[in-house]
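Hello forum,

I keep getting stuck at the same step: I have a sequence, I want structure tokens, and every attempt I make locally crashes halfway through. Rather than fight my setup again tonight, could one of you with a working pipeline run this one for me? It's a single chain of 229 residues.
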Amino acid sequence: MTALVLRFLPVLLALGYGFLAWQMSARRLAQRLARGSAPLDDPGLLPVLDRLGAALGRGPVAVRIHASPEINGLAAPDGQVFLTEGMIALHRQGAVTAEEIASVVAHEIGHVSLGHAKRRMIDYTGQSAVRGVLGLLLGRFIPGLGPYLAQTATRLIAARTSRGAEFEADEFATALLLKAGIGAGAQISLLEKLDRSGATQQGPAWFASHPPVPQRIARIRENLTRWQG
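Reply #2:
Ran it on my machine without issues. Output:
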């Protein structure tokens, strides 16, 4: 029994480290968001967000504005939905519509409803274990490069998992927007606008956390054809 425990000790330690690292990261993120955010109270946006809440069969959707110039939406590990100041600024400038903002919120609600935060915690813990074990094994055969190769391998796994979650959240958002009577047109047009602006550029595709915009739009159209055909 002792020999068995010792054999798997590196894996157990890596799992424990991954779990603690995720918990600490999630706590820091929650604290940072709490300090730098305020409830959304834009009268031009609240009515369309209320339509999302009605489609979900609950009260108004609570959204907070995070003081960041980036153009983004975020589903926090505790289930809160955030939009950045950069995203809200586009609406105030007339560059995006209230319905397009609602499509971002619907996407983030999808992440929350589908349990992606919990899944990320499990994935992160597992990936930390894989990285630790691979680093030890590869380090024996390729001294100096083992940890780097292990890190690269786990980054590829994490990116692929994240892209899958984005497709799932897009699908949820499309269904919610249709039920709310908003339609998927706003979802597609916003993605097109962000893509043209360069806001969706992420570097090498294999390390990207989000699928390319043309793929996301194609998948949305496929879902619409399947549901409405």
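The radius of gyration is 20 Å. If your local run keeps crashing, start a new thread with the error log.
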